[in-house]
Amino acid sequence: MFIQASTITFSLPEWLATYAGSYRASVDVAERMRFVIGAATKNVGQKTGGPFAAAVFERETGRLVSLGVNLVVSQNSSVLHAEMVAIMLAQQRLGAYDLGGPGMTAHELVSSAEPCAMCFGAIPWSGVRYLTTGASSDDARSIGFDEGPKPQNWIQELESRGIQVCTGVERELAREVLLLYRQTGGHIYNSKEK
Questions:
Q1: What is the DSSP string of 8-30?
Q2: CA–CA distance from 60 to each of 29, 79, 95, 132, 175 (Å)?
Q3: pLDDT one-digit tens code per residue, 36-60
Q4: Alpha-carbon radius of gyration of the chain
């Protein structure tokens, strides 16, 4: 007899709440990005996941709404990319599937790297109005990650949906985390091992 699970759960790294608590609201996007890159670095150092982090902020105040890190390998789920985790946590915290819905303040997703195909697809449905990224997709590919079939004109696609995109913020710092992950033997996971 087949028994379907009735719930899906995942666990966040123990250090994440303490790290998130260290954030002080800032309107400086580079400062927000350094905070996010710091989480990616800690995720690598603690061996709790991949070299990616993302957070949802209130755009105008810089208030942190949620912080996520990549948990694909540690939680055995291909959907637990940092952006997906941050979006899910923000939606849960605010009790809304649409972070841009009526009466909502504008929200910004800050990611240590440009979105892969899956995360690109999730961004318009999340309701965020701003996306800020660090490392490029080419940076992630250069260490072996498969970014999937994302459109070449992905920025224009998001902007046509009212999402303002800013790329390359603290790119070198974000790229260093990717290189650290590779240098320390981090598992480069893809759907098909090469």
A1: ------HHHHHHHHT----S-HH
A2: 10, 29, 20, 14, 27
A3: 999 999 999 999 999 999 999 999 9
A4: 16
Per residue in 54-98, pLDDT tens?
999 999 999 999 999 999 999 999 999 999 999 999 999 999 999
CA 168 to chain centre: 15
The encoded tokens of residue 50 equal 């991949």
Give the residue extent of every domain in the chain: 25-183
Predicted TM-score (pTM) of the model is: 0.95
How far is CA 52 from each of CA 6, 17, 106, rounded to the nearest angstrom? 29, 16, 23
Strand segments (E) across 114-174? 130-135, 164-166
Q: Beginning with the edge strand found earlier in the chain, give each strand of the sheet holding 164-166 in spatial order.
A: 64-69, 53-58, 107-113, 130-135, 164-166
Overall CATH class of domain 25-183: alpha beta
Encoded tokens for 121 = 């697809």
Q: What are the tokens at 61?
A: 């105040």
Task: Using the predicted structure, report yes or no on whether residue 24 has a pLDDT greater than 70.
Answer: yes
What letters, b where the CB count within 10 A reaches 16 and e where it falls short, cover 57-67?
bbbeebebbbb
